[in-house]
Structures are given as structure tokens and as C-alpha cells.
Amino acid sequence: MLDKFALLGFGDGGWGLALLGGAAITISIALATLPFGLALGLLVALGKRSSNVVLRGLATGYTTVFRGVPELLTLYIIYFGLPLLVQESFRLLGASGTVALPPFVAGMVALGVVLSAFSSEVWVGALNAIPKGQREAAAALGLHKGQAFRLVVLPQLIRVALPGLGNNWMVLLKETSLVSVITLPDIMFITTRANVATKEPFLFFGAAMVIYFAFSLVSAWVVGRMEARANRGFAAFGGATR
Amino acid sequence: MNWCEYPGWLVGSEVFQNYGCRMFSGLWMTLELVAISVTLGFVLAIGLAVARLYGPKWAQAAINGYTTFFRGTPLLCQLFLVYYGLGQFRVFWTDLGLWWFFREPFYCALLTFVINTAAYQAEILRGAIQSVPRGQFEGALALGLHRWATLRHVVMPQAMILALRPLGNELIVMIKSSAVASLVTLYDLMGATKLAFSRSFDLSIYLYAALIYLLLVEVVRRVWDRLELRLTRHMALR
How many domains does the structure of chain A reveal? Predict the structure, then answer.
């Protein structure tokens, strides 16, 4: 029994170091995707609230598509399809050759696109929660639209959107497990390889579960702290008692 | 020509026509997986949610641990743990007479999906039950209904209406997540599509699969909206 656990260790024949590397990859792809997905989501949300019919239709169609298609399928389409698209456009320009997309980039784009579709819903809800008077007051003070958004709306937006975005982050963290199928050496990829090498699937996939669960618990704690910080000064949300 | 070849023929796609039958039997497997697991998960979740709220302390703690753990880990990892991990103990299952179950990837996927969706649905139901105003419990008690009758006739009907929307979302999430079943050798819609791609190297088949998933999700969403409208018609909210 004990020598089985040595397989998870850092000694000879232990997979500890490989697992740590996998965990680092999982965390880095999640962290790399987050800003890209959230920013794109905010843009899509602004598009959905735009007065321009075409823009609104595009934004709504975008979220409908990427919320309705399985993440795994989106990942395959981007991993295999994006290089083809780039190749074709190069061919039109007269250049030739093949383009390969690094798995990390493909994973980041696919997860980011899905994240942006889901987070745009959160952003829309938060934008609706900011009273109209805030923008009007900003306009009365002579701020133009961009300034009003950046200086008045955005700081308030974060507080309202944080619980929903925290949820998005948890979903993203779990979805990163899918990038193992396009050969990015994350936790799932490493444990699958360890399983093939050692024939101890229960031990290794159990270990992967524990690592993911630890990440989730830490994330929940961090998001909780961020929410508490964002709510300081808001008595109704428990901020004033702190 | 079989009926399942027509859609591909209509859109003029040779791959979609050639693999149409495999794709539609894959779609059927996806529907089976999702329908069975979400239904079983729902039945389980009702018990879990009630026990989580009104059960003994140890049961509350255990259920809390269960929902937190399975909501905090990826479905893919859970699936591999069940299919490969539990499959490792072949002798044990054979002794129990359960090897026929853990040998089949379909049953393993089903079991994983039930465990996973039950955790999510239990949390949804718990939240919904807790959102029913206190006065409803007190009113029922004042009328002399005992605890189970209160739960069954007063609280649950109201909680179900509150839970309807998140439960619909969970159904859609399961339709999408069920695509990971293709990674344990199952030929669900995703698996059939991967097969078609690996044989034809025609990427457009992935786009047709995306379209089918999208249509499926949209249909479910619209049906669910109708259902919600119908079930809340007495509330005069809209």
C-alpha cells in the first residue's frame, strides 16, 4: 500500500514533480485565459446593450453560439480549424506553408471565447444594476462617455459582478481539464500518462481530483476575500461590521 | 438512402451524408445519457437537499462534503476515476457480481453523470427550499400540518417553481458536458463526430456537430421557457 503512494512522491520513479508541473500548467492556462475572457465578455456585454441593432444582434448571436456548443467541441474546432483559417488567408496573400497552433494558445482562445460568452451575461446583469443617475451625473459633471464608463461605472461594476465572475472562474478552472485532449501537459494529461505507465488509475486520478479540489477551495476562499473587500462600506452586504 | 443521410445530402456535405447515420445514433446516445442521468440525479437530489436541510447533523455534514467535492472537481476527472479507477478493482467487482456494470463505459459515464448532476441539483434545490419564506412553514404549522406534510404540500411546490430556471440551466450544462463521454470510447454525438473526422479529415463535420448541439440546446431552452410560463401562470408575474 505504502509503496503505491511512493508513486506520487518525488523519489525515484515518483510522479510528484510531473504532477506539480501539470498543476502549474493548469493554473497558468486558467490565469492566462481569465483577463482575455473577462475583457472580451465585457465588450460583448456592451455590444448587447448597444443602441445599434446590428451590434446587438451580433453580440446576442455570439453568446447563443458559444453557450450552446460543448466546450470540448469548441476546443477541437479552434485547435484544428484556426490554423486552417490562417493558412487559407495566407494563401490568398500569396504565401504558402503550414501553420500549427501551439496547444496552449488554442486552449486559451477556446476557453477564453467560452468564458467571454458566459461572463458577458454577468457583465450585462451588473451593468443593469448601476443606476442610470450615475451616468447622468457624470455627464452633468462634463465627463464624456468613455470617462464616465471608466471612472464612474467600472469601479462600481466590479463589486456587483464579482460573485458571478467568481462563479465563471470556478467553471473555467474545471474546464481547463479538457485541454489535456489537445496534448497540453496539464494535470489530466500527466495523470493519464502516469496511468498508462504504472497501471494505477485509481491512485492517479484520485490524486488529480484532490489537486483540483484544493484549487477550488483556495479559489473559493480568495473570491470570498475579494467580495468582502469590495463590499467594505456597504452595510447591507456585511461590509460595515468589519 | 436512409433518413439519416438526408440532412447531409440536403446541405450538400459528403461527410455529413456518409456519417449521418453514425451521428444521429450518437445523438441518440447523448440524449439517453443526459435524460437518464438528469432524471436519476433529480430524484437523488430531492432526498439529498431535504436531508441536507432537515437531516441529522452528520448527514448534513456528509452531504455538504459530497456536493462541495463533486462541484469542485472536473467532470472529466470524475469520469476517468470511475471508468479507469474503479475498473482497476476487477476482482473485487467480479466477486460482488458487479463487473458487468463497471466494464461498460456507458454505465460508467451514466454513473459519473448521475453523481455529478445530483450534487449540482441538490445545491439548486437546497437554495430553492431556503428561499421559500419562513411564514409559509409557520402558517402550515399553525394549520396543524406535520413536518412531512408541510414539506410536501406547502414548501416543495413553491420551491420547485423557484428551482425551475436553474434546473433548466443544469440540464443544458449536462447536454454540453456529456460530450466528455466520447473520451471513454463512447460514440455519443461527439464521439461519432470525432470518428468521422479521423476518417475523412474534413473539419466541416465538427461544424455540423456544433450546429446539432446548438439546435438541441435551443430547443430545450425554448421548451423550458414555455414550461416555466405555464407552471407560473397562476402567479400573475408576467
Answer: 1
Q: Taking CA atoms, what residue in A is nearest to B69?
A: A213
pLDDT tens readout for residues B61-96: 999 999 999 999 999 999 999 999 999 999 999 999
Which pTM was predicted? 0.92
pLDDT value at residue A90:
83
CATH number of the CATH domain containing A173:
1.10.3720.10
Contacts of B213 in chain A (CB under 8 A): 68-70, 73
User: Which is nearest to A153 in space by CA: A123, A183, A173?
Assistant: A123
> What residues have CB less than 8 Å from B65, skipping those under 6 apart?
none
Q: Which domain holds residue A137?
A: 2-236
In a domain, A96, yes or no: yes
Is the CB of B89 inside 8 Å of chain A's CB atoms?
Answer: yes
Q: Residues B217, B179: contact at Cβ < 8 Å?
A: no
A182 CA: distance to closest CA in chain B (Å): 12
Interface test with B, best of A209, A216, A218, A223 (most B CBs within 10 A): A209
Residue B32: partners with Cβ closer than 8 Å, 6 or more residues away: none
Q: What is the ipTM of this complex?
A: 0.92
| A242 pLDDT more than 60 | no
Q: What is the pLDDT of residues A49-65, one digit of tens each?
A: 999 999 999 999 999 99
Q: Is B157 on the interface with A (CB under 8 A)?
A: no
